[in-house]
Design goal:
It is built from seven helices and eight strands. It has an eight-stranded mixed sheet, with helices on both faces. Strand 1, helix 1 and strand 2 form a beta-alpha-beta unit. It is globular. The structure holds NADP nicotinamide-adenine-dinucleotide phosphate.
């Protein structure tokens, strides 16, 4: 992404909390875009050969490294994971929150207060932006897998934080016109609740690699 004057923006130090499917799908694209990416693991020494050269560190070291954090932990565990970090490493930082909480029965864990809202309430100094909850990680990392344009949603209280997250999305190949700002973090509930629709569509199509599109009126 470039500034209005055409000057390239400086790379970001990105700390990805989690080393699972989403972490490993997104990290290569951000590294290719020039960002300084660390994946945070509970057990960094147990990194697996299939992770290739992706840089892995402990969760505290990843948080200390980052200017932007990405939450890709299980949504039922995210508040505990964040609570285990030094508050100084969270203060003022952007958190791109992709997580969704599921019970062991496959139901949503955050029915009243969304996970995004819970994180923002619990860690008020974080600048939480909920996004990418309505798409599979293969498509998140490579929107060119789709046959046409789609919509990705952003919810968060801090406009600057949303701009940072939008930059990380465009760096993965998402065009700016695909990004729809839903307003404050209260709209995270809607994003998380799409999970049920997402699973039903995936079953119907027999494929997770699809995306949703908001079609405005004429
Ligand atoms: N998969 C998708 O396409 C997709 C799409 C949209 C949203 N999401 C959401 O994004 C998040 C990540 O999804 P994922 O598919 O990457 O999940 P995943 O493969 O299960 O990875 C989650 C990672 O979180 C870390 N973690 C930290 N604390 C944990 C704990 N207490 N228990 C288990 N793992 C813990 C683990 O890394 P370490 O073992 O290295 O610590 C684990 O690899 C989830 O909240 C999911 O609902 C996923």
């Amino acid at each position: 992404m470039r500034t209005d004057t055409g000057t390239p923006l400086p790379p970001l130090r990105v700390g990805v909390l989690g080393t699972g499917n989403v972490a490993r799908a997104l990290a290569p694209g951000w590294i290719a875009a020039g960002h300084d990416v660390l994946l945070g693991s509970r057990t960094p020494a147990a990194r697996k050969p299939e992770w290739g050269d992706l840089p892995v560190a402990s969760l505290p070291d990843t948080a200390a490294h980052a200017e932007v954090l990405v939450n890709v932990t299980p949504g039922t565990e995210s508040v505990t994971v964040l609570g285990g970090l030094d508050p100084a490493d969270l203060s003022g930082k952007v958190l791109m929150d992709i997580a969704v909480g599921f019970t062991p029965e496959g139901r949503l864990s955050h029915l009243e207060e969304s996970l995004g809202e819970e994180i923002q309430r619990t860690f008020p100094r974080l600048r939480v932006v909920k996004t990418f909850t309505t798409v599979d990680c293969a498509v998140m990392a490579d929107p060119a897998l789709l046959t046409g344009p789609s919509t990705q949603f952003l919810s968060g209280d801090d406009p600057d934080a949303k701009r940072v997250v939008a930059r990380l999305m465009t760096d993965l190949g998402w065009p700016e016109e695909a990004l729809l700002d839903l307003g404050g973090i209260g709209a995270a509930a809607g994003q998380e609740h799409v999970a049920y629709l997402f699973v039903a569509i995936a079953r119907s199509l027999g494929d997770y690699r699809f995306s949703l599109r908001v079609v405005p009126p004429k």
